[in-house]
Amino acid sequence: MSIIDWDESYSVKINLIDGQHKKLFDLTNQYHKAFTEGRSQNAIRQLIDGLLNYAAVHFATEERYFSEYGYPETESHKHEHKIFNAKIAELTRKRKTGEAIEHDEVIKFMRIWLEGHIKGTDHKYIDFFAKNGLR
User: Fold this and answer.
1) Which one of 8, 80, 92, 134 is most buried, counting C-beta atoms within 10 A?
2) Domains of the chain, with CATH numbers?
């Protein structure tokens, strides 16, 4: 059961980044499925770690493009990545200290992030990168 589904309205018209976004959707859905199926805490922790690690890969890709192409909104976009990373750091701290991580908290955060960040902040760079030939 998916809790968030990719469709073309999320596309930023850059194949690599669209693929990474799809992977983040998939990892979020895998986490939700594992939780609702009652998988072990270890399996759920591994999925959370995978989600967090993949988000870091994705941010590095975007930020590399920003640097290579001179994207004018780099700092504000990177600030949003920092906000995400702060939330992730909180979840990681909870996981490492054995504190409970609320499933609904993770899902709500990821849905808001994926929907809001991609359709809002990421969509701002579509025209810029298209004009610079990045697809």
Assistant:
1) 134
2) 20-131 (1.20.120.50)
Q: Is the pLDDT of residue 100 over 90?
A: no
User: What mean pLDDT is reported for the chain?
Assistant: 91
pTM (predicted TM-score):
0.90
The candidate with the shortest Cα–Cα distance to 107, out of 16, 1, 3, is 3
Range with the lowest mean pLDDT among 8-22, 49-63, 98-112, 119-133? 98-112
Burial 64-83 (b: 16+ CB within 10 A, else e): ebbeebebeebeebeebbee
Q: What is the DSSP letter of 134?
A: -
Cite the DSSP H helix spans in the chain.
Answer: 15-36, 41-69, 74-97, 103-116, 126-131
d(Cα 67, Cα 45) in Å, to the nearest integer?
33
Cβ proximity of 30 and 47 under 8 Å? yes
Contact 8, 35 (CB under 8 A): no
CA–CA dist 52, 78 (Å, integer): 16
The pLDDT score that the predictor gives to residue 92 is 77
Round to whole Å and give the CA distance between 76 and 85.
14
Query: How far is it, in rounded angstroms, from Cα 65 to Cα 93?
Result: 30
